[in-house]
Amino acid sequence: MAYEELARKILDNVGGKENINSVTHCITRLRFKLKDENKANTELLKNMDGVVTVMKSGGQYQVVIGNHVPDVYAQVLEEGNLSGESSSADADGPKGSLFDRFIDLISGIFQPVLGVLAASGMIKGFNALFIALGVMTETSGTYQILNATGDALFYFFPIILGYTAAKKLNLAPFIGMTIGAALVYPGIAGLAGGEPLYMLFEGTILESPVALEFLGIPVMLPIAGYGTTVIPVILGVFFASKVEKLMKKVIPDVVKLFIVPFTTLLIVIPATFIVIGPIATWMGNLIGAATLAVYGLSPMLAGLLIGGFWQIFVIFGLHWGLVPVAFNNLATLGYDPILATTFIASFAQTGVIIGVLLKTKEKKLKTLSIPAIISGLFGVTEPAIYGISLPLVKPFVISVIGGALGGAVLGALNVSGYTVGGLGVFGYTNFLNPAEPGLGMVPWIVLISIAGLIFGAVVTYIVGFGTLFEENEVATAQGVEADTNVEGAIIQANGETYIEKEVLASVMEGNVVSLSEVKDEAFSSGAMGKGIAIEPLDGRVVSPVTGTVSALFPTHHAIGIKSDEGVEVLIHIGMDTVQLDGKGFTAHVKVGDQIGVGQLLIECDLDVIRDAGFSTITPVIVTNSDEYLDVVTTDETAVKSADHLMTVVI
Predict the structure, then answer these.
(1) Do residues 381 and 396 make contact, with C-beta atoms less than 8 angstroms apart?
(2) Are 66 and 375 in contact (CB under 8 A)?
(3) Is 597:546 a contact under the CB 8 Å cutoff?
(4) 343 CB-near residues (< 8 Å, 6+ apart)
(5) SS in 3 state form for 393-408?
(6) 26 in catalytic set
(7) Which DSSP category does 336 fall into?
């Protein structure tokens, strides 16, 4: 399938390539860092064929595509002539809170390696399965080659993370890789776990063996070495990014090419071994001990909470905060019970989509459900979440409950994972303990995942849900029955039959006012057209439709829009506010701009309007309403932005 058109539309609606600081992707999402997210047409993107939804989290503008995101990503890079890597311009982008920046950093470091990481874990898992089933022995050449294939990434993980962290932190990538390589250098790594010169902090939780000295300064190495750790190299690269920046300022241009990396490496690598590495090791030990202590208080409760909230974490990208904890547990303990408790969540989510498929009468929803189920069985649940269960609400809630119950059972059984590998049905091998013969807990985990699948399907089928495509929610809200045909929604009211032309969303948050109550005869008489008015509670004016800005008064107090369906809308902010000559009004669009539903058009200062003695009541008029049978307005007394406001019928 060609993705040129989709890529072009995505680029256009994130504000153009000039609005992009960087773009990466994970399993299902394009992750943009935009200079100004207000320039993106979020609602238009959400409704675009080929796009599942749009999320904003951790300072990232995430366009959820689905399983074919690598192809779309490659096309986006080609169409936009982008590198796909963070640029120095990132500093101009949105920073967000410290927590958002931490999540963005962690996700940016791990996302590029996610596919190979999962593949390597799967190979290790299948190799362990072959040993457990007696298919091969550890001395066979086949086992050794497969073991090297699966273990290579984990053995040299600091080098890989040195590269991705350097790219994320704007450090020269080969400096980051060299820092990681030093941490796993055989001559030093071989000293870890050996006979120490002496011990520091003996008898405490910080007890550390001194393996060697650097200029008389003790160098402490963790017993297992730095091969499978993640915190030391990330902190080392972070420190290096600051040192390199300083060196570039003080070193003359003529010798920067080799003196900058020379001084950076000479400062950072010894500091990483002497200070950063030990501190990171202590941090890791404390984090591991803390997570296990919490888990130890009640494994069932921990599993209930983590398993239940996992999908919510995924939606907001917060799951990346648990990834370093899991890697730390694997490095320091050899196993991880934390991520293990999330394993059933994907099966519960897939189960609810099976229930939707069996229950729904909507052909389009059935069509969407089948690929979502297949994807979910392999652990990729974003298409199911964003495309089906979350919009339907009830199925998503049921999947959260299923994930919580599954996590509680896994916690009660003290299930742990021994590698980070495949997802969904490919994830069973993650639970094979290489130190023990046989399948261990895997048969139980298979049964529990099947139970999660059945739970989601059965409960969804029994509880039911609304419709995703064929119910006209606007008409239903007004007590009007609705159905569809190929032309649009058929609205039946008061014994009459109408066909919906277009639904207009609310342009502001506020109280609904009938046009007849507006103290301006041009509006109240209907001379300008049919419509409704809003007494606003805030000054944000957003688009009610997808279309084009057809007019914008120089004073920015009024704006005209023509929808893609031909409906012409006038939004007039306040009464007589033209006299303010633009004071208190800020326009975010211009004539000719393509706009989407919910896109910010104008911001106004309501206090400025009131202080000048003018009314803030804002009429929203369909100026070509005489071309249609009727304009049906909402019965609600208060609306929020994007709530239903009017329906144009023919």
Answers:
(1) no
(2) yes
(3) yes
(4) 406, 410, 415, 417, 427, 430, 445, 449
(5) CHHHHHHHHHHHHHHH
(6) yes
(7) B
Amino acid at 517: E
Contact at 8 Å (CB) between 403 and 345?
A: yes
Whether the full predicted model's pTM is greater than 0.85, yes or no, is no
Q: Find the catalytic residue in 572, 588, 604, 644.
A: 572
According to the model, what pLDDT value does residue 107 have? 67
In this structure, what DSSP letter does residue 48 have? Answer: S
Residue 273: CB partners within 8 Å, gap ≥ 6? 182, 183, 188, 214, 219, 221
Sheet strands side by side (includes 568-572): 594-595, 547-552, 558-563, 568-572, 618-622, 530-536, 510-513, 638-639
- DSSP 8-state class, residue 628: S
Phi, psi of 448 (to 5 degrees): -65, -40
Closest CA to 36 of 64, 53, 56: 56
| CB 533, CB 515: distance < 8 Å | yes
Q: What is the dihedral of CA 532, 537, 540, 544, to 10 degrees?
A: -30
Dihedral over Cα of 404, 405, 408, 409: its sign: negative
d(CA 582, CA 578): 7
pLDDT, one tens digit per residue, over 4-60 is: 889 989 999 999 888 998 888 766 678 888 988 888 998 888 888 888 788 876 678
List of E strands, 543-593: 547-552, 558-563, 568-572, 585-587
Asked if 359 and 466 count as a contact pair (C-beta separation under 8 A), the reply is no
Calpha distance 257→247 (Å, rounded): 11
Distance, in Å, from the CA atom of 506 to the CA atom of 525, rounded to the nearest integer, reads: 22
Which residues, 6+ apart, have CB-to-CB distance to 269 below 8 Å? 178, 179, 182, 236
Q: Which two tokens stand for residue 128?
A: 């362990």
Give me the helix-helix angle, 141-155 and 157-168, nearest 10°: 30
Q: Which of 156, 199, 204, 200 is nearest to 178 (CA)?
A: 156
Site of tokens 């951790």? 58
**pLDDT of res. 472:** 40
For the CA atoms of the chain, what is the radius of gyration? 29
For the chain, which ranges sit under pLDDT 70? Answer: 1-2, 26-28, 57-58, 67, 83-104, 107, 114-115, 118, 121, 125, 205, 228, 284, 287-288, 291, 314-321, 380, 382-383, 386, 422, 469-501, 650
For 95, 228, 330, 339, 350, the CA distances from 119, given in Å and listed in that order, are 33, 16, 17, 17, 22
Q: Which of 26, 556, 588, 644 is catalytic?
A: 26
Residues whose CB is less than 8 angstroms from the CB of residue 191 and which lie 6 or more positions away in sequence, other chains included: 211, 212, 221
Rounded-to-integer distance, Cα 361 and Cα 364, Å: 9
**Distances in whole angstroms, Cα of residue 202 to Cα of each of 199, 285, 289, 616:** 6, 15, 18, 72
C-alpha span between 311 and 403 (Å, rounded): 8
Q: Give residues with Cβ within 8 angstroms of 12, minimum separation 6.
A: 594
Q: What pLDDT sits at residue 480? A: 39
Amino acid at 443: P
Most distant CA pair in the chain: distance in Å? 94
CA distance 228 to 332: 9
556 is catalytic: no
| Residue-level length of the chain | 650
Residue 466: what pLDDT?
Answer: 80
Q: What is the pLDDT of residues 129-175, one digit of tens each?
A: 787 778 888 889 998 999 899 888 878 989 999 999 998 888 999 99
Q: How far apart are CA 356 and CA 517, in angstroms?
A: 46
